[in-house]
Amino acid sequence: MIWPDAVRANVKTGHDREMFAAYPYRSACPSSVWGQLIGDAKTDLLFAGFTNYFLWLEQPDFVGTLRTKAEAGCRVRFLLGDPDGETTRQRERIEGVALSVSTRIRITLESLAKLRGVDGLEARFSAPDDGPNHVGLSVFRFDEHALVTPHLARVVGHDSPMMHLRRQSSGGLFDRFSEHAEELWERGRPV
Length: 191
Hints:
Blueprint: H1 5-10, E1 19-23, H2 31-40, E2 44-48, H3 53-58, H4 62-71, E3 75-80, H5 86-95, H6 101-113, E4 121-125, H7 131-135, E5 137-142, E6 145-150, E7 162-166, H8 173-187, E8 189-190
Parallel strand pairs: 2-3, 3-4
Antiparallel strand pairs: 1-7, 2-5, 4-8, 5-6, 6-7
């Protein structure tokens, strides 16, 4: 009631304050945004995409960056789909693309193998019962920022929309998506 309609229409006042940016396609988000979010994170990096493979292709020396982050005390986690799981097979049938879901997961596993033994770096497969919940929503968290991709029915991740969230208060969008990813992480099994 205090704010005129014109101001209220242009100033975020509720939980939408956490919406920093939105992209109609994950691939529309510049790789420099990913690089800055990864680089600025000090305590927590969580990559909870089903495959996460694109990161290794788009981020220069991603292995070196992750090693440096972990050695500096940043917790680095990857939550992946099981490349041999039923959810993966179902998603491959749905997508019908040459670069299969299981291949994309294996690209990540191959890259993570180069980081074996690095303290502070963990990787898990989502639990079989969580596969459908995981494949439908990717959450990438960088301390108080998150990139969230709700996957559309028949398209690959890079063609799905993405939101950039910045935590502003408890119980907002950032926390809701973070809690979802943490729940999947807790039930996951080590790679």
